[in-house]
Every structure is written in C-alpha cells, then in structure tokens.
C-alpha cells in the first residue's frame, strides 16, 4: 500500500480518498463517507479523528455565498507600509485582524507588502468603512484596490495528487 508521511502521520490511499470526499462535502455522515471510500463508519471515524488530531484537517466550516448574504462587492487590495520592520508589520497585522471584511491577508514580496481580499455590501461601504479605515492605520503608506468584476474560479479544494507520489 502506498503511504506518504506528512508531519509524522502516515497517509494511505484511504486517507487521501477520505480527504478528497471531505473537501467535497464535510457534512457527509461517516456512513456516507465510508460508502464513498470503501471503509466502515467506525474506520472513517477513527481516521477523521486522527486527521484532525494531526492538524491535517484544521476545521470544518460552512461555506457561505457572499452575494446571497448581501456582500456582493469583492476587492483585492495591495498595501504598502511606510517602513519595513518587525514592529510595523506586527502593528499592521494586529490592526487588520480586527477587520471582519478582510477574508484573507497575505504578507508578500514584490511591490506591495500585503495583499488583502475584502468583501463589502456596496462600493460605498467598501470605500467608507474598509478602505478609509485601512488607510488610517498609522503604518500604512499606500493602498491600491482592484474591484472584482467576475469570479472565474474560486475553490477551497486543495489538490491531493502530490500526496500520492
């Protein structure tokens, strides 16, 4: 049986199939998952518990449609800090953690220091409640924003092919 070691955990073909099935529908019962991956519900339960304990499965969430709950505007923002140092980065990251509208914040190399994905109810809300607050963070030098016109691909499913190697 092909096994891959990730963080001291052995993943076999059943674990990989289970991870793939969970990424498609994390609300599936252990019975349904077992049928999909050819394991008993008790084996599925033990494997899921092990995958959770190892940190491979970080958490289980419901994915909401932003537009259906009134958050129809999405923006990608590029933030540059006034100075580059640990203190400034920590200050920015601490501030941005309090912005519920910021879905993702990435520290990056290149022209910007951070890239943010932001949702808002309207362009006015984006401008007033998010971008103005963002620009007022003391360590921020500049903010450039792009409004998303259309989502071509959006996925939470991670590729698992590299595990099988």
From TrEMBL:
Q: Does the keyword Lyase apply?
A: no
A GO cellular-component term linked to this record: cytosol
- SUPFAM superfamilies attached to this UniProt entry: Dimeric alpha+beta barrel, Winged helix' DNA-binding domain
Q: Name one GO molecular function term.
A: sequence-specific DNA binding
Alphabetical list of InterPro entries matching this protein = AsnC-type_HTH_dom, Dimeric_a/b-barrel, Tscrpt_reg_AsnC-like, Tscrpt_reg_AsnC/Lrp_C, WH-like_DNA-bd_sf, WH_DNA-bd_sf
The record's section on PANTHER family has: LEUCINE-RESPONSIVE REGULATORY PROTEIN, TRANSCRIPTIONAL REGULATOR AZLB
The name on file for this protein is Transcriptional regulator asnC family protein
User: Which organism is the protein's source?
Assistant: Rhodoferax antarcticus ANT.BR
């Amino acid at each position: 049986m092909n096994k891959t070691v990730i963080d001291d955990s052995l993943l076999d073909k059943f674990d990989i199939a289970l991870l793939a099935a969970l990424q498609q529908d994390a609300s599936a019962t252990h019975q349904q998952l077992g049928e999909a991956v050819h394991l008993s519900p008790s084996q599925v339960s033990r494997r899921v518990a092990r995958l959770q304990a190892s940190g491979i499965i970080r958490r289980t969430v419901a994915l909401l449609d932003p537009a259906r709950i009134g958050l129809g505007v999405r923006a990608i923002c590029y933030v540059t800090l006034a100075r580059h140092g640990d203190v400034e980065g920590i200050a920015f990251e601490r501030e941005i953690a309090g912005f519920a509208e910021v879905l993702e914040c990435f520290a990056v190399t290149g022209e910007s220091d951070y890239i943010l994905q932001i949702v808002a109810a309207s362009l006015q809300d984006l401008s007033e409640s998010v971008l103005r607050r963002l620009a007022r963070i003391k360590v921020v030098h500049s903010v450039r924003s792009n409004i998303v016109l259309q989502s071509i691909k959006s996925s939470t499913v991670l590729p698992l092919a590299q595990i099988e190697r």
